Amino acid sequence: MSPLAPDTTHQIITITPEAISELSKLRDTEPDADRLGLRLEIISKPGEDFQYDLSFDVITKAAFTDEVRTHTAEGVSLKVIIPSSSIDLLEGATLDHSANAGLVIRNPNKPQAPEVEGLIRDDELSAQIETLVSTEVNPALAAHGGFVTYVGHDNEGTAYLTMGGGCHGCSMSRMTMLDGVQTMIVEQIPAIERVRDLTDHSSGENPFYH
Length: 210
What we know:
Blueprint: E1 14-15, H1 17-28, E2 36-42, E3 52-58, E4 67-73, E5 76-82, H2 84-90, E6 94-98, E7 102-106, H3 124-142, E8 146-153, E9 158-165, H4 173-188, E10 194-197
Parallel strand pairs: 1-6, 2-5, 9-10
Antiparallel strand pairs: 2-3, 4-5, 6-7, 8-9
Helix pairs in contact: 3-4
């Protein structure tokens, strides 16, 4: 294989046998089923909790930059098309199916931070905040299925974050932010005096689907 050739043996996302079985049944009800693959794409914007779009598309219509993989279980094959913009964000995720929950994606990745004009996120202070978020804040929130994403600071003592996962859309999320996250950051990073939450919690209709 050429050094520049893509590694088509690497499965970007794991699809369980149960999910392959269910998806193949759905595919086979479509016209031209033998030409179809599952297109899996993240359609949310940076800073928002992951939202996924799953649809069947003709495999030969996949863009040159899309990645196409074949997943097989118990003699059933399913081709999966992942757009280039979603590859890194789906790396290591699992698509599963159960009778109770239906199709569920478990994704270990975190949404990208939104770009907010005027905020600083590439200095030493930002590095300190991001280290604290990854090593102490998010592990503490993980028990509730939530996490925060650092957005930036205003150089005037305010750090800006968004909340996702179980915290996104939860009525207790703002209290968690103010009483928990803010306390941890302010106590350990003297340059930060307060924390502000930029999350649009009104969009958290199904916060545990992540």
